[in-house]
Specification:
Elements lengths: L2 H7 L9 H8 L12 H11 L12 H13 L7 H7 L2 H6 L1 H13 L6 E4 L4 E2 L5 E2 L4 E4 L1 H4 L3 H4 L39 H18 E5 L8 E2 L5 E2 L5 E5 L3
Antiparallel strand pairs: 1-4, 2-3, 5-8, 6-7
Helix pairs in contact: 4-7
Bound molecules: protoporphyrin IX containing FE (HEM).
Length: 245
Amino acid sequence: MAFMDFLCNHPISSIVIVMDSMFKVGFGVKVDSLHQSSEEWTSFTKAFDDCKMEQGPSSDNSNEKIVQEVKEATKLKDDTSFNEFVEHVDEETLDKMQYLHAALSETLRLYPPVPADAKFCFSDDTLPDGFSVRGGDQVCYTPYAMGRLDFLWGDDAKFFRPERWLDENGFFRPENPFKFSAFQGGPRICLGKDFAYRQMKIFSAIMLGRFVFKLSDKKKPINYKTMLTLQIDGGLHLLAFHRLL
Ligand code: HEM
């Protein structure tokens, strides 16, 4: 059975999760072994109850804000051709796209491509917070649930709100990787993180700058495909329209 299926269909108590250690080591939040009566436990199980891919409430016109930023950064004019536009998306302009960087991070928070990641212990060990693990134990951290915990992200955890990543001057403010765990944290953090952001920014700036996307069938339910990586069952079918500048 695929891992996400397992996570979605089994009572949370049947999964060994040493999340408190992760938090204490990297983030400093005291979770106290996630007692089942605790608020954090409720929050955690609630995050997994929402294993359906519903489009949550989002911040006002984030799409339009991205397009505006792309326009300003690339100094787009109404008559700029597609090729000229692509040539303008360089290192310097990408660095100016702070809101886009925030919007991508917000997407990865809610929809991390690696929704759950498990490790096996080779031998008995004690984690830095004193939690004991034994050889053969499986330890799992779950970016999908962690990205939706209100005690980590606030009451608006379910909202798509890129602004949460920006400081008062509109500059991107990175989060601790043990809170935003989509790329893992520590010595084995994703080596391609910066490269991935660069690719995502280039792709989104070009696609959103030149096209408007609409769901081809708004009524069709959107579900996850249960895989090790988070995928959409059957793909997400969109209609693309030229954006009128
Ligand atoms: C949004 C895109 C990406 C996400 C969310 C992501 C996420 C992750 C995660 C969670 C891990 C840890 C896996 C584990 O140890 O269990 C990882 C490892 C790694 N990633 Fe990525 N990744 C992304 C893109 C990339 C790209 C584009 C590259 C290469 C250009 C890359 C290269 C690597 C490498 C080499 C490791 C292994 C690091 C190590 O074990 O020391 N990743 N990534």
